[in-house]
Amino acid sequence: MVDRLSFLSEEIPRDSGVPLRARVHSRILDAIRSGVLPPGSMIPTETELGQLMGVSRTVVREALMLLDEDGFLFSRRGVGRFVADALPPRGLERIRPLEELLRTPTSPVALHRSEVTLQQLSATFVTEGLGLRANAATWFFETVLSRDGEAVALSQEHFPAAGAIDAENSDAIAAAMRATGGGSLLSILLSRYGSQIGRGAVRITPGVPGASRAALLGTSTSEPVLIVTQTAALNGAPCYLAKHLVLSRAGHLSILQTG
Prior knowledge:
alpha+beta; six-stranded antiparallel sheet; two-stranded antiparallel sheet; 9 helices; DNA binding
């Protein structure tokens, strides 16, 4: 087996539209999935990982935060970070569109699209979540959700450029996402495909936003957030992956569950 230092120090591609923190996340996740970093093992420090990968400690910290959020790592205060003893399953999860969960009878939710990108070389956690081959192209949509003029959540949604959704429909959905006043990706998919979109569960974990996401939310990097991960399928094939960061000022988050 390849030793972890050699694996982690392999050059990270720098010419894609994928954020550097996501590419670092993918490299570490690949090491975990492949057993290079086995369950229960202690991983290198942020400084060591930065030196191995040739990136800043800030980039490493944000990548590790994502892995913490997804349940692949855990921390022991004063000791370090460790790979989880039991890795998260790769099941499908879905709830209603986030804007429906956050709106109130007197305060609707406004959506501001901050990014629409066709990522030609997608991060591992995105392709895994969408059931795609490694480095497949995916659409990425980032949206700030506000209520009463104040940001309450950040939504980062992905869907395949090909696969569960054909190219023509993929382009049409991307156009709808670019339109002013449009809803979230999940709301557009539900409107377009209705009952063909499969139901699932939702994964909720506590965390903090990190520098880039805190800037979009207008909050501090240490502000507590709920991290809500959703996936959904179209006719049984994965078509949707999202990670939402919900601030405490959003109030309670209600989720309807049926047996």
